[in-house]
Each structure stands twice: as C-alpha cells, then as structure tokens.
Amino acid sequence: MDKRLLNVVILLTLLIGQLPWQIGYSANSSAISDVVDSPETASSKIQVLQTHENGLSLALDTHLYSLAQVTYASHNYDQLTFPGGTLQGEPGQPQLPSLGGLIGVPPGAEVKLAIMPGAATLLEGVYTLPPGAHAIPSEIDFEPGQLGYEPDPATYTLDQWFPREPVQIGEETWIRDQRVARVTFFPFQYNPAQKTIRWHPHLQAEITFSGQPPTSSFSTSPFEDLFAQTLLNYETARSFRADDFAQVETPFQYASLGSRFDITINQNGIYRLFYADLQAAGMDVESVDPATFHLFNQGQDVSIYVFGEGDGSFDPGDYISFYGEKFRGDILAERYQALMDPGNGQPANNWFWLCEPNACDLAKAFEQYTDNNIYSLTVGGTPGPRMATVDGTPTGGTVPTVYTTTVRAEEANYWWAFEFGSEDVWFWSQIQRQTTALPYTTTYSVNLENLAPGFPATIHAEVASRNSTSSFPDHHTQFRFNPGTPILDDAYWDGRTRYAWTAEVPAEDLLEGTNDLLFTMLPDVATGNTRMYFDFFEITYTRLFVALADQLDFVRYAPGTWKYQIGNFLSPSVEVYNLIDPLAPVRVLNPTVTGSGPYTASFRTVDGEMARYYVAGANTLLSPVSILQYQPPNFATMPEADYLFITHEDFIPSLQPLAAYRAAQGLTVAIIDVDDLYREFNDGIYHPIAIRNFLAYTFENWEEPPLYVALVGSGHWNFKNYGAATEPYKNPPPVYMPPNLAVIDPWQGQTDATNLLATLVGADALPDLHIARFPVSTPAELDILIGKTLAYESQPVADWQRNITFIADNIPDPAGAGDFIALAEGIITTYINPDPYFEPIRIYENDFDCTATNTPECDAVT
C-alpha cells in the first residue's frame, strides 16, 4: 500500500476519533439566514504563534459565521457554524462550533492553560441553539442508528456561558512514546437562560509545561509522518518523547511455567489423573519423582493429593487427585478491575469498554468465551502444595437436617447484544406481542428436589424490554410461582431497560419436583408492539441433606461441631472435601457409609462462620477433557519484530509467502500461534485479552515494539453454540480468531473492538500500533487474499489509488440521522484538500435526485 495513503487513513482515524461526539446539520435546515459580511471566506485555522520547550502560544481568528434555521424533532432552532468548525455538545446541552488540534506534551509535565484577554462581542438578538444528540435505542436489529435531540430542561434554564471557558485542554493521551493533548477553541459561547451568544473574533491561549524538563535529544518514531501532520508543535514535541513505555498498564506479568502438561476441564468436581493417563499424554512416568508434581490454575497454586507418592516413584495404580472448576471469570475480573475503574478520580482505562459501566459483571463478560479451565502440571521443579487432612470420624456433634441452596433456571436461546443493562446478551425467550393481544403469559420451569417442608423460599427474576415510547408506562408485568398462587410481583415500569425483582415464596406454594414461574404481560400500557426478553430466575430454598446424582455440594453458615448425615448415595464409597478455598481443598478422612443402597454418608466437623463441603460418590469422579504435553516458545528470547502475524495454527503454512514479502521490504517478521498466547499470556484461558497482554509485554521489554499486527482467522460471537434450533446462529462455523467483544456502539451494543487490543500506552483509545485482520476460515481463502495483496502491492502506484471516495446519504434524511454530506465535506476541506496528492471523489445521493427511499433514483445509487 502507498505509505502516504496509509498515513492519511490513520490520520483521519486519529483526528476524528479524538473529537467529542460530532453532530452534523439537521435533517431539515433552511438557507443561511445571517452571515457576517467579511472578505475572509477561507476556513479558520489554529495559528501557532510561538513554540518552545516550556510551552506554546496558539490563536484562532474567526471572520465568518452563519446562523441557520434548523428543525430537530419538530422544534425550531438556530444553528451556529463557522468555516472549519465542527459542532459538538454533550447530549441535551447546547451545540456549539469548535476547532481543535493536538499538541505534544513532555511526559511528566503539568499542563497549564492561560487565555489571553481579548474583545468579545454580544450578537444582537436572542437565539435557541439545538441540543447535542443522544443515541435512540434501536428497535430493529442492525438498523442504522438514529439520533435524538431533546434539550435538558435544567441546562437550558442556566444563566451561565456554555462552555465555561472559550479554550479548553482535554485529557492527555499517548501515541506510543509521544504524549499528546487536545486543545479546543470555542469562539462562541452561549447563555441558554438569556438566549444570547458571545463571539470571540480573536482567541489567544498560552500553554505552559512545568514539572519536568524535556529530553535533550530528538528521537524518531515509526509514527513520525503522523506526528508531523497532526501535532501543532511538532518540531519541539520531538524532544518530548518518553525514554520508555512506562505508561503501559497491564496487570499481567509474563512468567512462563515452561514445559508442562495442560489439563483442560469444563465441570466442577474431583478429577483423577491416573498413571496411564499421564503416560498417554507423553509423561516419562517411570522416571518422574511424584514429589515434584506442582499444579497451577490462572497463576495460583492448586493443592493436590498424590496417591502412592510416598515411595518416591509414580507406579501403575498411583494417581493425582484435585478439585477442579469449570472456568469462572472472577480471577480475571479481579486482575483487570483496577484497569477498568482505577478510582481516586483517575480516568478509566480503555478496557472498561468490555461491558457497560455500572451495569457489568466483569467476570461474566470473560465467561462469554469459554467454559474450559486450564490446570497446568509441572514435573521436576519445585514441589507444589498438597491437600491438608482433617479427621472426620462421626463421633459426637449435632446433626443438622437442612441447609439452603440456590438453583438457577436459565437457557441461552436468543441473542440480543443491544441490551445495555448488563453484560448478559443471551436470553431464554423472546416475546413479541401487540398490546391488543395482551394479556399474554409465558411459563418457565425449574426442578426443586428434596424440599424441606415448612420453609419459604426467595425468588429473583430478570427480564429486559426492547421497546420504549414517550408515554408512561411502557410495561405492566406480573409474576407468580406456580398456577393459582398469589401474584409475587406486579409492576408498571418504563423504558428500554432491564427489570429485576425479588420476592418471598410461601412454603405452601413450593412443590417437590417441577415448579413453574408464570410471567404475564398486561395491556394497560402505551399501545403498540411490546417486545420482551426473559433472562433467568433463581430460587433460594431450604433443602434436606440428600445426595443428588451421587454427590452433594453444600454451604452452611452455622459455627459449631456438626455431624453431617447425607443419604441417597449410589456408591458404598464416598470422599469428603472441605472447599472453603477451592484451590486448597482439605480432605475429610474417615467418613462412614451405612446401608445397603442407597447409602448414607456421615462425618463430623468443627465449622467456623462459613463452611462448604463436597461429598462425592465413586461414580462421580471425573476425567479431564484433555491432557496436552506443552513445550512453550521462549518469548523472553524471541527476536524483536516489526511485523507480527498472530494466527490460528491452520494458517501458518499459507502465511509464508506474505511473511517473506514483508521481510523483503526490510521488515523483521514473526509468525505467532495464537494458542501460545492464550497459554503463556492468559494462563491458558481462551480470550483475546491474551493478545493485548503479549503486545503490552513487547512494549515493556523490547527496545522497539512492533509496528504492525495482522490477526489471521475469522470469528463470531457464538462461542458456546448457544441458540434455539430455529435461530440462524445455531451451529456456527469454528472460531479461528475470536472477536474482542466490547460495548462500544451506542446502538448495536456489544461488537468487535480489535482496536482496543492495540491501545497499550496510557488510558486512552488511541492505538499504539497498526492492527488489522484477515477474516478467513480456510487456508484456501487465505491463499486468495494473500495472492491479491501481493498482486496489488507489486504494481506501481496508479492515479486511481490516490482517489478517496466519499459516499453520503441523502439530505434531508427521512430518518433524521443527520447531514452526512456536511460531515463528508468537513473532512474533505480539513484533511484532504490541503494535500494535492489526493483527489476526493464524491458520491452523494442528492446528486442523483435521490430524496426519498425506495425510489428509482435511490435504488440506482444503492
């Protein structure tokens, strides 16, 4: 690719991405109604008056402005603009035109802004400026996003200037080793209570850096062309480069376990690794010293029991026993929580976008990807911890008869990623009815076994609404537990949101076996189409000590000495474990088993404030999904590379021609199996954060981190093959490179955000290297893409490659989405026209007499 074209693409992404939410002209606007008479017609530009190592002076002159009558949501407003300016405004607050630019800042300096005194003019007349837009939730899947323009009543009665200051400095950001900040000029301020506009024809600002002197020598960055085109003080800022990448924030520290056996499991329970299992996996069982067995999970020690290790050899009949759990995201959530929300008034890191702030269970966001948990067994090194033991001989103690447990009823049948109430995007059922077809009841079942009579239960349920109207209420719902029982929850509620409720279920309404939750939607609401998603419900009830499927896992909060008696075991042999710490189980020895089948197990314990026990019959002992002998690459000695291919192993052979071509261009190249990154940079857990962890490692440890990353492999969001049989996303193709799912789109919600894998330096959304993807599912597809890439790049640059095509929707837009022509022209004027190398090509629907959808003119364009 032409390097200049690549830089322009990155430049547009950088500059546009740095702007606050930019709103174009209204769907309905009149001709300019008020224009300042001035010979100056060119776009305004920020002038650099002076720049030095301790700061710089900037100025903005506006000679021309316009006021146009516009209509938003049937309300008339006065839209204020000036050439070169961009409209911006927080949702509900006045839109004002502004012009901004980036400056380079010394790494540790404090940035101070002083606005120089200057004359200001109060424009004659009174004006009502339109409010900043907000996203209107989508009612239909994959529809274009719509914007709403509702003024905030409290804001529009304030007797103060918006913005408070006409020049502002935004939060700092980093692009590799260059610290940058955005300076924004607002030549116009607005008082919403007085409806007046104050104009600053000339604005001048002094920006000073203090607290840390800049470095004494200039450095060169791989992003040098980009900095030269974007930084107002580029020549001076070259001496502001950081000596290292200390601003890289990652809680994961690479420390390889080395050669090991990776054990994959996906259920909770006691696992046995027998002599034959480990021998089949490649272990030299005849020469190992079992005393050196060491088990790890997600960077933590796991206590094990090694039967037969006392003789110093691992013999047939010997085995390793450990308690394993399917993957739970709590360890990763704890690891990354500080990055999501550092507190102390500090800005959240870009990774908080994994899920919606204040409505997100971060652990469950990680759990979307997999149930597989990886336990790693090393041999020959430092011995790992062994399970402690306690005598459980059942002599003395009080016999408890009941305990409380929680059963969760949930199915993942329907995917809806546009629900912003939580990280959960899978739902049990989808209900769509016209209000004229209500009331409508759906039923959801749960099985309650071995109920203790006479005890009430607690129920919790959650649903999500997809529709919202301007009327109240949007929804009237009722819940009852089992037919003919009293209503437990009767609520009117509003909006496109999640609704949760909790109630007590009387003991007489609980049934042994199948119980039904009845969910009813009622018609006394705003008319129209009602659309609901039922998510899940939970029952916390009191249960007898009876084994279920030859096992029982229970928790109690009752200090004292207890003699537990648990019936209904199918095996005459049971094992008992104290699981207060699942990573360090304690074996409870000498339980007794009585009866001739079903059997009763008894054991005695001394419990503290909280106790958890797992009692397992011989029939419930588990075998892992797989045992893999794994010899990792040594990333600590890996040669540095400019260009990284991170790929599924299936595509490594097909990548060789492109890797060789890049090397011939003078780039150092490396091909990395993404599975190695999961194992070495995320403890084996399947999640794309492993890629970010590896890239962060290169920034912290390489003299020159990589510049390009190409991800190779297709992916989708249905990792666990969820979905009702009738849904198109059931039985999806394999995932070769998982998307980095994050809540970044105000309409679509959760979507792929590969860019966040490359935002490594500083707590910002700017990438620190170039990242892209070959979305291929077979080597043959990759061969085709690489062939086209090589053919394209091997040809000399043709004139057509200098064209940049802008395609814009019609205005006025029937859906009110905005004036995309104005946005396109703003980009062309500001970023394309100044460089004669490029030629803008315009394809606007209005040029083809396309003013309404589903017309021959519009169909011809599309």
Compact description:
This protein is mainly β.
SSE arrangement:
Elements: H1 3-18, E1 28-35, E2 46-52, E3 55-61, E4 66-72, E5 75-81, E6 86-88, E7 96-105, E8 110-115, E9 121-122, E10 134-136, E11 146-148, E12 167-169, E13 173-175, E14 178-185, E15 188-191, E16 196-199, E17 202-210, H2 224-230, H3 234-237, E18 260-265, E19 269-274, H4 275-280, E20 294-297, E21 300-302, E22 305-307, E23 319-324, H5 330-340, H6 362-367, E24 373-378, E25 388-391, E26 402-410, E27 414-415, E28 426-427, E29 429-434, E30 440-448, E31 457-465, E32 475-481, E33 487-493, E34 498-505, E35 513-521, E36 529-544, E37 551-556, E38 560-569, E39 574-578, E40 586-589, E41 592-594, E42 599-607, E43 611-617, E44 626-630, E45 643-647, H7 652-664, E46 669-673, H8 674-681, H9 689-701, E47 708-712, E48 741-745, E49 749-752, E50 770-774, H10 779-794, E51 803-808, H11 820-832, E52 839-844, H12 856-861
Parallel strand pairs: 25-40, 45-46, 45-47, 47-50, 51-52
Antiparallel strand pairs: 1-4, 2-3, 3-17, 4-5, 6-7, 7-14, 8-17, 9-16, 10-11, 12-14, 13-14, 15-16, 18-24, 18-44, 19-23, 20-21, 20-24, 22-23, 26-36, 27-28, 29-36, 30-35, 31-34, 31-36, 32-33, 32-35, 37-43, 38-42, 39-40, 39-43, 41-42, 48-49
Helix pairs in contact: 1-2, 7-10, 8-9
Structural summary, described in words:
The longest helix is centred in the first third of the chain and has 16 residues, at 3-18. With 862 residues, the protein is mainly beta. Among the domains are: 29-240, Sandwich (Immunoglobulin-like); 402-544, Jelly Rolls; 637-794, 3-Layer(aba) Sandwich (Rossmann fold), CATH 3.40.50; 799-861, no CATH class. The chain contains 12 helices and 52 strands. Helices cover 14% and strands 35% of the residues. The strands form 15 sheets. Strands 6, 7, 12, 13 and 14 form a 5-stranded antiparallel beta sheet that branches. A 5-stranded antiparallel beta sheet has the order 21-20-24-18-44, with no helix packed on it. Strands 25-40-39-43-37 form a 5-stranded mixed beta sheet, with no helix packed on it. Strand 2 and strand 3 form a beta hairpin. It is globular.
